[in-house]
Specification:
Chains A, B: Pathway: Amino-acid biosynthesis; L-histidine biosynthesis; L-histidine from 5-phospho-alpha-D-ribose 1-diphosphate: step 9/9. Two copies of one chain form a homodimer. Chain A has 433 residues and is α/β, with parallel strands linked by helices. Chain A folds into three domains: 153 residues, Nitrogenase molybdenum iron protein domain (Rossmann fold); 200 residues, Rossmann fold; 37 residues, Single alpha-helices involved in coiled-coils or other helix-helix interfaces, CATH 1.20.5.1300. Chain A is built from 17 helices and 14 strands. Chain A has a six-stranded parallel β-sheet, with helices on both faces. A five-stranded parallel β-sheet of chain A has the order 6-5-4-7-8, with helices on both faces. Chains A and B meet through helix 5, strand 3, helix 10, strand 13 and helix 15 of A and helix 5, strand 3, helix 10, strand 13 and helix 15 of B. Strand 14 of chain A pairs parallel with strand 13 of chain B, so a sheet runs across the interface.
Chain lengths: 433, 433
């Protein structure tokens, strides 16, 4: 049974805080293990990666077989059905179209003092993408990570994907090919992150690493952060649906379950202004759970972390949504645009009853890599910006330096940084000579 | 003596790699201490902060005196000279004008399938800024951190600044006032970071923490990352000057020294296509070091980490610059714009002989918080973006769902996420009925 709360209940605040603070993830402390693995790969390169892959993935590799050959990729991709390929291509095309619009502009202008100022965006030279193996090996995640990198102009994009016992998901390779990935290595875990960050004889180092992974991968990404850039460390997935009683309870139930089925630690929340509708959705969830393939996972998530919250009105819903700062926010209400104006902390918003969150997972266009665990308060989903960096530009003329140089000199003196001031003064003296 | 290298020397590559790999910073491992401090503040709030401040800053505070009162701020600010105030205001105005231009646009469009897509930027609700006490208490850093936050629209901006033995830098308070900071607390260290991240009885928690600090502050920021957003963890400062022989060696020497005087771990590099000019600059550095106030620090930095590299031509200079990925890059060459096109990895570029890097530290307009330690390969300086987050928006119509829904359903099936597929199918069935 999920939690049922109502803002009219005097105990609401307590119940809501308990819900927000529920610890949904028990990350094992693997930091020492991961540190040792990273050191090993730094010291011994390919040899360490090969040994660790034999141990963890039960797969014997050589330097020559670390990387998928074009023939191996072509053979795997040939197994993909025409329908699956068409779906991947439609998704890729829409993701590309959305992310192309994110490309930021360079800028340059001349200010009243005569200084030329501006900035310039440029892509990272090389990026690495971690793709989990096994059950959570999602071709859609390959598209969502690789396409923004390629749109940003990353020249070299390498994928690492573990293939335990040699098992490969052909759809992952097809997605990589469609996205224009340049290199694919059959390695995973902390050893793959270390290889991407520090390089080995076979694998050139990258500048940025993105993509989801297990506790070992997350710990390794944290450790190599600084040596390379990383994306966020994602937690379990979440959805908040705000729905009025004009919705079909079964649709809303399915939307809640489509988060819950990801993971027992996922969280699905419903806020409604109609307690009866909330009950109807909960009943619909129970019905769907009777037949759902992943009922064990979805049921556990719904039971342990699900909630139905009844509010007085949609303004109250917006306030609660902002406290939750959900990764996914679905607004199934009469005027979703008006409500979206008020829900300011959210990774992605899905407006209206015809936009189930699953559309956003695959083919909507926006990225499905989104901030979890309330981090939408301060961070954004993956975008082309993650694969770009900005260089600021400034050029002074003698006149500009004459106008603003003395203030710089003054501030340098106030901070006791004499050489700073002298570097300006030497030039001003030349101008005044 | 700094290192002298020349690309024509067969041993150049070895020397260059040694220079790049020089370990400039010995961060003490304070992680366990910091973890204990953070836990203490989380558990005991103000009481812990007050105790720790008494211990580390020799300052007895109460809940009522944790925060500077408006009267205390006004009294301190009144001590600032008119000249210093005018310099701060000029700097603030220029920094504001530059950062206003960084504000990104929201977007919304309708795609050929009828889906409305877009994104929206919004500021974080509350930000905290760490300002070091003592020697490294720079009012310019207050402006560089606080103004982008306020331009982004952060409603609540709190500063923490330790005041060891009660000593306050009036210029820091003046800069905070000019920048529009809302709250100033006289606390520092890991306890201040913990208070900002988790809140206490007196200090409300923030969503994002920026600003430089010592090893304790850096370790605390790493630890609270995830609970709140943080900016980069900055390393020692660096400059690369690329200069031809048409420059005054003394100007270039001062530019190199204006990095070196920051810190014994700072690094100042010169690349030139004229070995004789390189020698002349090194000689000018030695002359300036005879009288420089901070000669001990600047001299140690120049001796231990400085370098003069002679290249065959400016294309070679650009290649080396890209391998260095400097925080600050000064281009004192005949055509700096052309060279800037080729130097793609740099935090900030200063073009031409009239743009000493010190201008950028204070009054240029661009931010002086920049990526160090080669991280300009994948990250950018502080900007309004650090105080904004993006929410993606998607709204499907029935027609749009009819067009792209089946592909989403197909991909959901291929990923064995049945509820995802069903949430789309239920709606498609209704449309087909």
């Amino acid at each position: 049974m999920p939690v049922f709360l109502a803002t009219t209940d005097p105990a609401f605040e307590e119940g809501f805080v308990t819900l927000m603070n529920a610890k949904r993830e028990d990350s094992p402390d693997v930091d020492a293990t991961v540190a040792a693995i990273i050191n090993d790969v730094r010291n011994r390169g390919d040899a360490a990666v090969i040994e660790l892959t034999a141990r963890f993935d039960r797969l014997d590799l050589t330097q020559d077989s670390l990387r998928f050959t074009p023939e191996e990729i072509a053979k795997a991709v040939a197994q993909v059905s025409a329908e699956d390929r068409a779906a991947l291509e439609l998704a890729a095309e829409r993701i590309r179209a959305y992310h192309v619009r994110q490309m930021p502009d360079d800028a340059q202008w001349c200010d009243p003092e005569g200084a030329t100022l501006g900035w310039r965006w440029s892509p990272v030279s090389a990026a690495g993408l971690y793709v989990p193996g096994g059950l959570a090996s999602y071709p859609s995640s390959v598209l969502m990570n690789a396409i923004p990198a390629k749109v940003a102009g990353v020249a070299r994009l390498a994928i690492v994907v573990p293939t335990p016992d040699g098992l490969v998901n052909p759809l992952v390779l097809a997605a990589a090919e469609i996205a224009g990935v340049d290199e694919i290595y059959r390695i995973g875990g902390a050893q793959a992150i270390a290889a991407l960050a520090y390089g080995t004889e076979t694998i050139a180092p990258v500048d940025k690493i993105t993509g989801p992974g297990n506790a070992f991968v997350a710990a390794a990404k944290r450790r190599v952060f600084g040596k390379v850039g990383i994306d966020m460390i994602a937690g379990p997935s979440e959805i908040l649906v705000i729905a009025d009683s004009d919705n079909d309870p079964d649709w809303i139930a399915l939307d809640l379950l489509s988060q819950a089925e990801h993971d027992e630690s996922a969280q699905s929340l419903l806020i409604t202004d109609d307690a009866g509708f909330g009950q109807a959705v909960a009943a619909a969830v129970d019905v769907r759970l009777e037949t759902l393939e992943r009922a064990a996972i979805a049921g556990a998530s719904w039971r342990d972390f699900g909630a139905v919250i009844t509010v007085r009105d949609m303004d109250e819903a917006a306030d609660l949504s902002n406290r939750i700062a959900p990764e996914h926010l679905e607004l199934c209400v009469a005027d979703p645009e008006a409500l979206a104006e008020k829900t300011i902390h959210a990774g992605a918003i899905f407006l209206g009853p015809w936009t189930p969150e699953a559309i956003g997972d695959y083919v909507g266009g926006p990225n499905h890599v989104l901030p979890t665990a309330r981090s939408a308060r301060f961070s954004s989903g993956l975008s082309v910006m993650d694969f770009l960096k900005r260089t600021t530009l400034a050029r002074m003329t003698p006149d500009a330096l004459r106008a603003i140089g003395p203030a710089a000199e003054r501030l340098a003196q106030s901070e006791s940084l004499e050489a700073h001031g002298l570097s300006v003064r030497a030039r001003l003296d030349k101008l005044n000579r």
